[in-house]
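ok, trying the design again with the full structure, not the truncated one.
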């Protein structure tokens, strides 16, 4: 098994952390002056106006770290990822300020996803590439919005993104993939530097500019990750497991809102997993930490599945899927019983 020298990845991660830790307070001070402030509302958890623009600090830290310490030969290969991530981040920044129509954001995300496909970054599940295109679009756009939906409690989206990117870094290191390892390490450092100010009680939010950026990058990393020592019929489950928390949360919200006759794409609400945990008696901080533990556990399962044979991989994947179905039913059953508004 080919492995990577960890020193360059550590340098990238630490530099991203330092840049984010330094840039986030600046964004915090600039946001109110520029009008990027998230104000309290009935369907929001925070009680005081909170600066946005944290996503810009994450974006800056990610790119600065790669420019300073990334291998320029490898980095040039992912221009489409950089451009696509920039498109969705700018759309999110605009939405934070002016509230773009959902259709405009969706079109921008489809353009960014199409750019990846055009440059060869797409899932390879079937032998006929045209069958992979709709799956790739669904994966990228779905994950991009899943992280956006998950950004509903202090430290949640940033922490889950950190955990997922950490496991992508480990998986890339194990299979000798410098490119994915460098991108994932930069994402880990940028999120950690931001979380210093975003963990409960948050002093700044990442906004849509940050959550859409994180979702797009994590989706792209899941596609780029390769496992030369195993077969694709098993390894397709790995990124799904690593990103299991946002996938589960979005699935739950979609099913719940459709059941109640609401538009699942545009209806805001306190019906996410984190909100339901709070209604069950946990504090917001405890709810976030529980989801951190779940994300970490799924990441460790993904590390195991990446090296498992077909039978073992599907037994483990089937068990996780069964538990997820049970959790979906249990959480939505509590909703039906009236335990969650």
């Amino acid at each position: 098994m080919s492995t990577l020298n960890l020193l360059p990845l550590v340098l990238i991660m630490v530099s991203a952390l330092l840049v984010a830790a330094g840039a986030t307070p600046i964004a915090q001070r600039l946001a109110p002056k520029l009008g990027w402030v998230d104000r309290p509302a009935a369907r929001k958890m925070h009680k005081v106006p909170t600066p946005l623009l944290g996503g810009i600090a994450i974006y800056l830290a990610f790119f600065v770290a790669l420019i300073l310490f990334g291998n320029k030969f490898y980095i040039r290969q992912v221009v489409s990822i950089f451009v696509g991530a920039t498109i969705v981040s700018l759309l999110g920044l605009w939405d934070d300020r002016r509230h773009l129509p959902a259709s405009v954001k969706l079109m921008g995300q489809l353009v960014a996803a199409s750019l990846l496909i055009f440059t060869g970054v797409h899932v390879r599940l079937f032998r006929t590439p045209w069958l992979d295109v709709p799956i790739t679009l669904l994966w990228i756009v779905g994950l991009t919005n899943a992280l956006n939906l998950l950004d509903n409690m202090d430290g949640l989206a940033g922490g889950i993104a950190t955990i997922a990117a950490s496991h992508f870094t480990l998986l890339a290191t194990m299979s000798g993939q410098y490119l994915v390892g460098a991108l994932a390490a930069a994402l880990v450092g940028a999120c950690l530097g931001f979380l210093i100010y975003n963990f409960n009680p948050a002093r700044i939010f990442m906004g849509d500019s940050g959550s859409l950026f994180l979702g797009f990058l994590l989706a792209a990393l899941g596609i780029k990750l390769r496992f030369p020592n195993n077969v694709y019929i098993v390894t397709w489950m790995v990124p799904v497991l690593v990103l299991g928390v946002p996938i589960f949360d979005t699935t739950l919200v979609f099913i719940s809102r459709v059941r109640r006759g609401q538009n699942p794409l545009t209806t805001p609400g306190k019906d996410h997993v984190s909100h339901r945990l709070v209604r069950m008696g946990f504090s917001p901080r405890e709810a976030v930490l529980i989801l951190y533990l779940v994300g970490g556990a799924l990441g460790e399962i993904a590390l195991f599945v990446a090296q498992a044979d077909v039978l073992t991989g599907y037994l483990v994947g089937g068990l996780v899927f069964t538990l997820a179905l049970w959790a979906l039913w249990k959480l939505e059953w509590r909703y039906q019983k009236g335990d969650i508004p």
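Keeping the full-length input from now on. Residues 6-336 form one domain.
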